[in-house]
Design a protein that fits this description.
Elements: H1 3-31, H2 41-74, H3 84-113, H4 118-146
Helix pairs in contact: 1-2, 1-4, 3-4
């Protein structure tokens, strides 16, 4: 298994941990105590704004720890050369992620248009953002395996 594939697997695990633990934290500390928060736009805005930096910082820390552990275990340096194949794979994965999130955005707006509660829109955005991230990393693993 190549370095890029390992890095994608670590990123997937990190994303699942971040979204799972953050969702559990928000549910236990806020929603469980007051279900009325589900319809509060201020609550959802704060939740989104806190999730973004938390996810970024945790992913950075996880990637640094992965690089250190990989260096210790395999005695190999991180490849510092990015060739056209790597760039092409990255662009394909970004395109996949973009389309999934765009579909999720349309679903979220459609949920509002048919009269569903506002929290359905926010949950749809969070879930499709998460799925888009996972799909991008899975596609990266597949493309590196195919050699595309």
């Amino acid at each position: 298994m190549g370095h890029h594939e390992k890095q994608s697997i670590v990123s997937i695990i990190g994303s699942v941990l971040v979204i799972g633990l953050y969702s559990l934290y928000v549910y236990r500390n806020y929603i469980q105590a007051d279900m009325g928060l589900l319809n509060d736009f201020r609550f959802w805005g704060k939740s989104f704004l806190y999730l973004i930096p938390v996810a970024i910082v945790v992913q950075i820390v996880i990637q640094i720890l992965f690089a250190i552990a990989n260096r210790i275990i395999t005695q190999e340096d991180i490849p510092d050369i990015t060739d056209e194949r790597d760039k092409l794979i990255e662009l394909k994965c970004i395109r996949i992620s973009h389309w999934i999130f765009t579909l999720g955005f349309m679903l979220a707006m459609g949920a509002l248009a048919i009269g569903m509660k506002p929290y359905v829109m926010f949950l749809t955005l969070i879930c499709t953002g998460f799925v888009a991230s996972l799909a991008s990393e899975v596609a990266k693993i597949i493309y590196y395996r195919m050699g595309a």
